Amino acid sequence: MQQEVEFIKLSATQNMTILIKTNHPLKDYPKIAAKIMSYDSVHAEQVGFIEKSTNDQATAKLFMAGEEFCGNSCMALACLIASEQQAEANVVLESSGIDDLVLCNVQKNIDRYECQVKMPIPQKIWQSTIDYEGIGRDIVFIRYDSYLHIILKVRSFSNHLKERIQDLARLLGKALDERLIGILLYREESNELAPLIYVPALESMVWERGCGSGTASIGIYLAWKKKREIMEKIKQPGGTIQVSANYTEKSKHVQIKGIVDIVAKGRAYIKL
User: Fold this and answer.
1) Is 0.85 surpassed by the pTM of this model?
2) pLDDT digits over 108-136, tens only?
3) Distance in angstroms between the alpha carbons of the first and the last residue of the chain
4) How far apart are CA 82 and CA 105, in angstroms?
5) Would you give the DSSP letter of residue 265?
6) What is d(CA 134, CA 270) in angstroms, rounded to the nearest whole number?
7) Domains of the chain with CATH codes
8) Are 102 and 255 spatial neighbours (Cβ–Cβ below 8 Å)?
9) For 96, which DSSP code?
């Protein structure tokens, strides 16, 4: 069976995101996402479905194909809404993977958009050790409502290390009941991030060129470690995302700011 899918493709710090406007049964979301993300279709790193909000305070709802939360996809949808309104805007969204509303501020800069997003606060942060395939070092776990991030500090981003990290992500995917597992390779001395995002339900594993949620976790980690508010620019393969965060007893907050480009709009034909 072939379905016609209306889509918009956006680049949030080169984290290529497809947003789908047409209505489809929820059960078809994973199949549609897997097909439209593939090399022989529109090709992207992640897919979200635009739904009507059930909350009067929100403009729209973003439902990710793996039912996860995605900061860059929220940023992309907020910028799309602002572009349709042809105005700078404060956009409030509902999103899968999080109960709270997502607050976004969009500013237009010539033919692209700059968006600031208020991100989820983690439930828990802790440090532990891991010894897997020669990876023996201290790591930081950051637990959110619907996903888990693991920060692994490294000196370089070698292909050999990345292959082992992918195997580790698959192993964790089988052992843990998580919608999303992010393993964040972080070079602290240069503020560089290489984020691996694994969504078990979709069997989607991507070394993202820019990761908003991963950037937020790095900000939270730095604020937790330094016991004060921080503001940093985190370098990633696709560019830089800014994060401001605090994680103390008195105050917990985190925001990211990045650039979004609208790349393409059209219709795709998906065989299910």
Assistant:
1) yes
2) 887 789 999 999 999 999 998 776 666 65
3) 5
4) 9
5) E
6) 42
7) 2-118+260-271 (3.10.310.10), 124-256 (3.10.310.10)
8) no
9) T
